[in-house]
Design a protein that fits this description.
heterodimer; A: 247 residues; mainly alpha; Fusion Protein Consisting Of Minor Coat Protein, Glycine Rich Linker, Tola, And A His Tag, Chain: A, Domain 2; three-stranded antiparallel β-sheet; 34% helix; B: 445 residues; mainly beta; Rossmann fold; Neuraminidase; 2 domains; six-stranded mixed β-sheet; four-stranded antiparallel β-sheet; 4 helices; 31 strands
Chain lengths: 247, 445
């Protein structure tokens, strides 16, 4: 006890100084930053980006001109090997270095020209329907790396999970299960989390609902379409089975 | 010494601090939580091979027994029995695990493997095992001993066991139906009291057919039937012991008595009796034969049915202007109207599960069989409609309803149909002739 306090003080001070030293040496100064002068421009005045707009009605076409078809030679002239003929080489002129003002001027001109050529360029294209009218169940190539685990499990269980709609109060027969999966999607172990509640119930159909869940999980295994890259997110699943009216 | 102790304390506290900081900074075990709210309602594929047997005398029984079990489960609508021709594994012994992979190939979810052992000339032993194909485990295994002529009942009992194990609810296959067998046209129709197994097998007449009989109902003991007969020239309530054939008139009432039905414990009989054009509900104690009047309303109260706990009675009454359903306590107090829909509601029957009331409803020229919530009359749903549907009766487990349907015209025949609680799996019960007014027995003991 006599030496405890001084030793403790010494060691704390040592930690603090050591920490400061390491922190100080590990920090590097910021590099000098080149400052670029900018003009602030109100974007909305320049761009034409607007919310979804209806596609303009097509203009009536009057007296559609006949399309003239020109005869296209099907064969190359004899002895003419296009691929081997070297193209006419333009004189190799070294481009003069542009100043910043010249560059901005030319850029501005090209933007103006592009806007003149295509006034609808900044309008959002409207497809056949204005809003999304169908649900895409999955995205990507569904190869196990892009599939959404929740959607995949819900869709898979629909094929295996039997709902007994004739059972008493079938919509209240909730079964909660924890499933540990291997990287290949096999079931390593499975536990019914509300087992005690099910066993204590007077509704025997709840036990059958629990069995149906276990049947379904075994039947649908292995869950090999789950993204292997995200194994850590689905290696332990909590699955809550509770049917709704739509079952 | 003190120095060493201080160092130890210091190092220990450092270690604890380090452990706590590391454990707190580590992410918790990742768990993905998913709600599964939708499944399918398809029948469960089940494989039921012929039962194994080692004696020539049991060869036919082993085939017939498997067929009865297949038919029972198939008719329930909850199981799809796979064609035996598709079975890959041919089991030779039920005491070995089946090759689950072979059964998975044909998409079986459950397998019933059984055998019949002839223990003596008049004694068979029937064994079966129920397997979970995907779980790879035995779900159930039972053994029955019986006489050879009783094989059908054992088959029904096996069906009940499978049904119970896979649905959680009691089956209804080992039960009977008492009904009215009809012959002749509508003008000159002969009605005889008859009984059969729930699948239509073993039909037998219980009475000669000289007198008009109506509304047979089983007692909970399954040994006694009550019915109405005009044997004495006026309608009277009878009791019939179906084993001995002994009959008894219940009470000597001077008035028209109708719609008798047993209480759930079989000690009372409830019925309606008409006096001066006013029909009321009465209950009779079968031991003392004393009768108590339960309703006193100046309207037609009839078709009473007890709740499964015996505390309530549902009946139909036109006290509100048209026939509707009402409930009251078993002593006649606390009358409440249950149905409020359009049409005329009649023949209410309380479900054995206690949650629903089945009824007949006439509306827009059709007769409908439906169910509604027993507590408040809510959730009414029509299960089947036709020119003439009537007289629902519940399966012992409360999942299936039988009713009678009559065809149009003078030669329209009556027949008995079954339907499940979801209004699906409508099936005609096979009878040798026209049949009506079915009443389902409880499960046989």
């Amino acid at each position: 006890m006599k030496f405890g306090l001084p030793i403790s003080l010494v060691m704390h001070l040592g930690f603090i100084f050591g920490g400061l030293l390491i922190w100080n040496t590990s920090m590097s100064p910021l590099r000098d930053v080149e400052i670029i002068p900018l003009d602030l421009v109100t974007v909305s005045d320049i761009t034409n980006v607007k919310p979804t707009q209806k596609k303009p009605d097509p203009e009536p076409v009057e007296d559609e001109p006949e399309i003239e078809t020109a005869e296209v030679p099907t064969e190359s002239p004899e002895g003419e090997l296009l691929a081997d003929e070297p193209p006419d080489e333009e004189p190799n002129v070294e481009p003069e270095p542009q100043s910043m003002d010249d560059f901005l001027d030319s850029f501005s001109k090209s933007v103006d020209q592009a806007r003149k050529d295509n006034p609808d360029a900044n309008r959002q294209a409207v497809l056949g329907s204005e809003i999304a009218d169908r649900t895409v169940q999955g995205v990507g190539n569904q190869d196990g790396n892009t599939v959404d685990p929740i959607q995949y499990l819900q869709a898979t269980m629909m094929n295996c999970y039997k709902v007994d709609t004739g059972a008493k109060d079938y919509q209240s027969l909730r079964v909660e299960v924890r499933v540990n999966l291997s990287r290949d999607g096999d079931i390593k172990d499975l536990k019914v989390l509300n087992e005690m509640q099910i066993l204590a119930s007077s509704n025997n159909s709840w036990r059958a609902a629990r069995d149906n869940v276990i049947f379904a999980l075994n039947e649908c295994a292995p869950y090999d379409k789950l993204p292997k890259t995200a194994y850590n997110t689905w290696k332990t699943l909590i699955l809550n089975f509770q049917p709704t009216d739509e079952s | 010494m003190l120095f060493r102790r201080s160092i130890s304390v210091y190092i220990l506290s450092l270690v604890i601090g380090l452990f706590m900081s590391v454990s707190m900074s580590m992410p918790a075990q990742a768990q993905l939580e998913v709600d599964i709210t939708r499944g399918h309602t398809n029948p469960t594929p089940i494989a039921i091979p012929d039962f194994l047997n080692a004696h020539p005398e049991t060869a036919q029984i082993s085939k017939d027994m498997a067929k009865v079990i297949r038919d029972d489960l198939e008719r329930s609508g909850l199981f799809a029995v796979l064609d035996p021709a598709s079975y890959i594994e041919k089991q030779t012994d039920i005491n070995y695990q089946p090759k689950f992979a072979d059964w998975r190939l044909i998409k079986a979810k459950a397998l019933v493997s059984g055998r019949i052992v002839r223990e003596s000339e008049n004694r068979l032993r029937v064994e079966f095992r129920l397997w979970d194909i995907y779980g790879g485990e035995q779900l159930d295994g039972l053994r029955f001993a019986t006489t050879p002529d009783n094989w059908r009942r054992i088959a029904h009992k096996v069906s009940d066991s499978i049904y119970k194990r896979l649905t959680g609810e009691s089956g209804y296959f080992d039960s009977r139906i008492v009904y009215i067998s009809e012959s002749g046209n509508k003008v000159n129709r002969k009605k005889r009291l008859a009984i059969m197994d729930q699948d239509g097998a073993n039909p037998q007449f219980l009475l000669g057919g000289a007198d008009l009989v109506l509304t047979p109902r089983f007692s909970p003991s399954t040994q006694t039937v009550t019915y109405l007969s005009w044997e004495t020239g006026r309608s009277q309530v009878y009791l019939l012991d179906i084993e001995t054939g002994r009959r008894e008139i219940l009470g000597n009432f001077p008035n028209l008595t109708m719609a008798p039905r047993f209480s759930p414990n079989g000690t009372k009989l409830i019925f309606s009796m008409s006096k001066g054009g006013n029909s009321d509900i009465y209950v009779m104690d079968l031991k003392s034969r004393s009768t108590q009047r339960l309703t006193t309303d100046p309207s037609i109260d009839t078709s009473p049915s007890f709740s499964p706990d015996g505390r309530k009675i549902v009946f139909n009454s036109d006290r509100g202007g048209s026939p509707q359903l009402y409930t009251m306590n078993a002593n006649g107090s606390n009358v409440k109207r249950l149905s409020f829909g359009d049409g005329r509601y009649t023949t209410p029957v309380w479900s054995p599960r206690g949650d629903l009331i089945a009824f007949t409803k006439s509306l827009n020229g059709q007769f409908h069989i439906g169910v509604m919530g027993a507590a408040d009359g809510k959730g009414e749903r029509i299960l089947d409609s036709s020119y003439m549907n009537e007289g629902p009766t519940w399966a012992p487990n409360g999942r299936v309803i039988l009713f009678s349907r009559e065809g149009r015209g003078a030669n329209g025949r009556s027949s008995i149909w079954s339907i499940d609680l979801n209004g699906q799996n409508l099936l005609k019960v096979p009878t040798s002739g026209a049949a009506s007014d079915p009443a389902w027995s409880p499960l046989l003991p």
